[in-house]
Design a protein that fits this description.
It is a single chain. This protein has 15 helices and no strands. 69% of the residues lie in helices and 0% in strands. It is mainly alpha-helical and 318 residues long. The chain has helices at 3-9, 17-23, 26-32, 35-52, 54-57, 98-134, 136-151, 154-168, 171-188, 191-205, 209-216, 221-229, 234-257, 269-277, 286-312. It has a single domain, classed as MetI-like (MetI-like fold, Orthogonal Bundle).
Length: 318
């Protein structure tokens, strides 16, 4: 049989070979055999899907003032005396449906939290690669800059940055740019941790043979850092990013609770908790309870998933 005939009879590589290899790997096996990880992932998936489909699932658009009726204000949950359809979890003092507000608020909280983590990861990886690979004065300057950021409390930096951006923008544009302002405020205070992790790993990888061989071949430093070193330091970054997602969501909720986050017209979970806290002792307990439970559930699920991922990717525990 000729070589050409053998080549034509060789089966094609399956299109989903990588997916099958992943599902048959140790990481997927450990995931599906860890109940806390599976439940956390399902909870996060359900919250994310319902938040994305909020316009289809919610009986009211809480951001549309024409759909808010003061005669429907402070209605209790539907299973309590005085509850009405379709206000499943009751309404607040403005007649806003709590269930709809939670769905829309979860979308804002998840979006800002995820975006701030992505921005901080990009900044941290860039700074860490440059600092660890080049070293010298650049390394010293970047690390001292990171120490300066860490020396100031995170919330104080976020509040300061948010206040500065708000003062620079016209009043008519503040609400529209609030998500971007919050994302920037949280990311500025979160990149240092990623930079230190990437810097330490880069200093180790830079002394290995494959990096030395790339230098001998006179490859550009940028290509060495991105194509050779970066893939080998992403494991620790991924674990840290997963754990910090919950902190980013909590930071956004804290800023909104303090009044420097999302406005009342576009409430996130933190804004809903701040609004409900003002009327908690007047008997409208549902206004603050259900958004607080949603926020707690998101953070708990993210932390449990991050803990599993940290243990699963730790070579000492394999």
């Amino acid at each position: 049989m000729s070589v050409e005939t053998q080549m034509t009879k060789t089966p094609d590589v399956p299109r989903f070979a990588r997916v099958r290899a992943f599902l048959n790997g140790d990481l997927a096996h450990g995931f599906f055999h860890t109940p806390s990880a599976v439940i956390s992932a399902l909870v996060l998936l359900a919250i994310a899907l319902t938040a994305i489909a909020a316009p289809l699932l919610s009986p009211q658009d809480p951001y549309d003032l024409t759909q808010l009726y003061l005669d429907k204000a402070e209605l209790p949950p539907i299973w309590s005396a005085g509850g009405e359809v379709p206000y499943l979890l009751g309404t607040d003092v403005q007649g806003r449906d709590i269930f709809s507000a939670i769905l829309y608020g979860s979308r804002i909280s998840l979006m800002i939290g995820f975006a701030s983590v992505v921005v901080s990861v990009v900044i941290g990886i860039t700074v860490g690669l440059i600092s660890g690979y080049i070293g010298g004065r650049i390394d010293n300057f970047l690390m001292r800059l990171g120490d300066l950021v860490l020396s100031i409390p995170t919330l104080l930096v976020a509040i300061l940055v948010s206040a500065i951006f708000r003062q620079l923008l016209p009043v008519s544009m503040r609400d529209a740019f609030t998500p971007a302002i919050l994302t920037t405020s949280i990311a500025i205070t979160s990149w240092v941790q990623y930079a230190r992790i990437v810097r330490a790993s880069t200093m180790v990888e830079a002394r290995k043979e494959y990096v030395l061989a790339a230098r001998i071949l006179q490859l550009p430093s940028s290509k060495i850092m991105i194509s050779h070193i970066l893939p080998n330091v992403m494991t620790a970054v991924l674990v840290t990013a997963t754990l910090n997602l919950g902190l980013a969501i909590l930071a956004e909720a804290t800023l909104s609770f303090l009044g420097v986050g999302m406005p009342v017209t576009q409430p996130s979970l933190g804004t809903l908790i701040r609004i409900g806290n003002q009327y908690f002792f007047s008997g409208s307990w549902w206004v603050v309870l259900f958004p607080a439970l949603q926020l707690s559930l998101i953070i708990l699920a993210v932390n449990l998933l991050g803990d599993w991922l940290r243990d699963a990717l730790n070579p000492k525990l394999r």
